[in-house]
Amino acid sequence: MPRAKKGGENWEAGFRAAIRSLSRGWGVLEHSGKVRLRLQFPKGQGLPSNQQATLPYPWSPESQPAVIQLVSLILEQVNKGEKTLQAALCEVLAKSDVKQKDPRNWEQIVERHRNELINRGNQIKEKTYQASYGRYFEVALKLLRGHGAPRTGSELVNAVLDHQRTNRKAGKVHGTPLKPWRQQASSRQECCLALKKLIEFAVEDCHQPQSWIIGQAEYKRLRGGRPRESPRATLTDEECVQIFTELDKKENRGWGDVARILRIYGVRMWEINFLVVRTNWEGEKQLFVSKGKVYTSQGVKEVTDPRFLEPVPVANEKFNLLKKIDQGELVLPKGDNGKAMEISGANFGANLRKIPIWQILVKTKAAQGEKLVPYSFRHTYSAKCTELGIHTDHASAAMGHSAEVHRRIYRTDTQASVTRDFERARSRIG
After folding, report:
1. pLDDT tens string 88-112
2. Any residues with CB less than 8 A from the CB of 94 and at least 6 apart, and which?
3. Could you give the angle at the alpha carbon of 282 between the alpha carbons of 276 and 287, nearest 5°?
């Protein structure tokens, strides 16, 4: 059992005396840098049993007013035996702003939330966590540790959105100012959502006070209007062939076939790591994705079914991809260890951005009001399916998502396909 220190600073003696004066048997002491309540009563006088509990306050002079107020709120029901010390504390702390006084609570909450996101929930990867959550939480914790720390969810989000950041990249740009997230529509939306989820987790799972919760109207104001994003660009067959050719020239061979698989089979980038050849219901060999995608629907984790893939040729070519994979002849890019590397959006995109034709096409598509991204190969596959007259239900099944997701997210047309469709219709009339 921890004991009060002998001597100590003058404020400590005054602090203990103030707590003793509130009620018989109540006292405080320092325990692991925090304030600890200790109740010691004479036996046989109808008083509650001896109890102890550590409070979410640092052992410092600044904590005295809050601790005195807290003890005043709970001592009557504890002394009467209506509640245990721990139960009374939990009830009051959940309704007050006590816990926010100590930023170490938030550090623990962020770590618990990180574990929830990575190991449970959507089971996201560490890179995804850092990009979509971690960078905002890092700033939030910095602000919560500082002078005049935010005391409500709304104050915290506003402070993070307006925080002045600097470039961390090496070289001449290191240390140069970056736009606050409030001025970047997409990042603003992502930041608000990440902090909203963190705060809800803190209140619901970690007993933080309700004062942190952000109301729906306030959240909409913080988030701002949804940014109008440029439509994802699609690629012509000729443009695809040019990209394949330039990627084939790279020293680390294999990126050309990665791009061919993405365009011809419309797979997600990470799915390339799980491609096998299986016999279909007609007894023929067909490419198959052996792992489903993990996603969350109404808070419940789900996994899509593994699936057979359907090729959509480029300039009437399939590039013998099925045969190469079946016979183990497909050469994927190698990592530093000399072994085939795990394909991801990050490493594929990094290699795409290095080739001249991609740099030219990015500018060309931007001038047309479209955004060219590595995922454009999958969007192109989707649009080609529509152009070929493939039903949306069938195209979405081949791509591994629902028809609703297909219509909402993926390109199902190009300006050229729209024009050709109307020309065909007008020719039938004439």
Report:
1. 887 777 665 544 445 557 888 999 9
2. 207, 208, 209, 210
3. 20
Strand order, beta sheet including 275-279: 275-279, 285-289, 307-308
Maximum average pLDDT range among 147-151, 201-205, 284-288: 284-288
Alpha-carbon torsion 84, 85, 88, 94, what sign? negative
Q: Which helix (H) or strand (E) holds 30?
A: strand 26-31
Question: Is residue 260 within 8 Å of residue 330, measured between CB atoms?
Answer: no
Count, in order, helices (H) and strands (E) of the chain. 18, 10
φ/ψ (deg, to 5) at 24: -60, 135
The CA angle 4-10-15, to the nearest 5 degrees, is 60
In terms of pTM, does the model score above 0.85? no
- How far, in Å, CA of 216 to CA of 4, rounded? 47
Mean pLDDT along residues 251-266 = 91
For the cut 50, the answer to whether the pLDDT of residue 239 exceeds it is: yes
State the Cα–Cα distance between residues 205 and 120, nearest whole angstrom: 14
Detail the DSSP E strand segments found in 223-322: 275-279, 285-289, 294-297, 300-303, 307-308
For residue 283, the SS3 value is: coil
- Give, for 53, the enclosing helix (H) or strand (E): strand 51-58
Buried b (16+ CB within 10 A) or exposed e, 172-201: eeeeeeeebbbeebebbbbbbebbbebbbb
Nearest to 335 by CA among 326, 343, 327: 343
Please give the Cα distance from 93 to 109 (Å, whole number). Answer: 16
C-alpha span between 397 and 231 (Å, rounded): 23
Name the residue type at position 124: I
User: Which one-letter amino acid corresponds to residue 412?
Assistant: T
Alpha-carbon span 42 to 152, nearest angstrom: 42
Question: For residue range 304-335, what is the model confidence (pLDDT) as tens digits?
Answer: 899 999 999 999 999 999 999 999 898 889 88
Smallest CA-to-CA distance from 411 within 232, 236, 268 is with 232
Closest CA to 379 of 352, 409, 401, 417: 409
Helix (H/G/I), strand (E/B), else coil: 232? strand
Q: In the structure encoding, which two tokens stand for residue 43, read together?
A: 């036996």
Minimum mean pLDDT among 139-148, 344-353, 361-370, 403-412: which range?
403-412
131-132-136-137 Cα dihedral, nearest 10 degrees: -100
DSSP 342: P
Helix (H, G, I), strand (E, B) or coil at 223: helix
Between helix 216-223 and helix 185-206 the angle, nearest 10°, is 150
